[in-house]
Amino acid sequence: MSLLSPLRGAVSLSTLALRSPCTFQRSIIVRAASRAASIPVNEAIPFSVVQLIDPETRKPGPPTQLKTLLSQLDRKTGDYYTVVDSNHTPAPLVVIKNRKADFERKKALKASAKAKKTETKIIEMTWSIEPGDLRHKLSKVKSHIEKGDSVEILFKPKRKVPLPDLTHMQTLAADTEQDMRAISTEVQKMWRGTAVVITVKPSPPNAPMSEPPATSAAS
After folding, report:
1. With CB atoms 3.0 to 4.6 Å apart as the test, which of 33, 68, 126, 191 could cross-link to 158 if both were Cys?
2. How many whole angstroms separate alpha carbon 46 and alpha carbon 3?
3. What's the pLDDT tens digit per position in 87-112?
């Protein structure tokens, strides 16, 4: 029996190709998932001779007894060998990996995926907004923040309506900023002419809530 037989599939790709495209694709997916769930490591590798891929050059080394490589393995650091190509000749290819690095990589991928899912919502209001409408809009902001999204609150002039006095605009912006600081530590206000943008982002984990800043004047 060939040493390579334990990891070779019983059904060849040419046989699978004779089936319908959907059946062929499903078969490939099932086989890939099965291999990923049962990839042998260290002593479970079913080959006595392997080639180790150099971590720096990414090139295969000479055929080497697996037991020799295992004797050189620093298990205390979490290093392990795993097969990446069982059909390679003259010997199957293995790589050295680290469990701690694997964990950190998976954690980083999860964090990246979570970050990509977050969005920046824009909620626009005019300076003449009614108190009831304002409360409704700000409740939507809180809901978005709780979901992990960032929000930009935009106060702007209403077309064909005279601007309210500067004191009214400053007070409305300052009160809104203070309300937002009750739900997040990541609040920033920026005036743009007669408009103001209040950016609210989800607070970092365990971040203490900060005191509301003093009211800033329009620039």
Report:
1. 126
2. 8
3. 999 999 999 998 888 888 888 888 77
69 touches 52 (CB < 8 A): yes
Q: Which of 105, 176, 185 is nearest to 141 (CA)?
A: 176
Q: How far apart are CA 169 and CA 119, in angstroms?
A: 28
Q: Rounded to 5 degrees, what angle do the CA atoms 80, 82, 86 make?
A: 160
Find out whether 91 and 49 touch, Cβ atoms under 8 Å. Answer: yes
> Tokens for 218?
């329009």
DSSP one-letter code for 60:
B
Is the separation of the CB atoms in 128 and 136 below 8 Å?
no
From the list 170, 168, 123, 117, the residue with the least C-alpha distance to 142 is 123
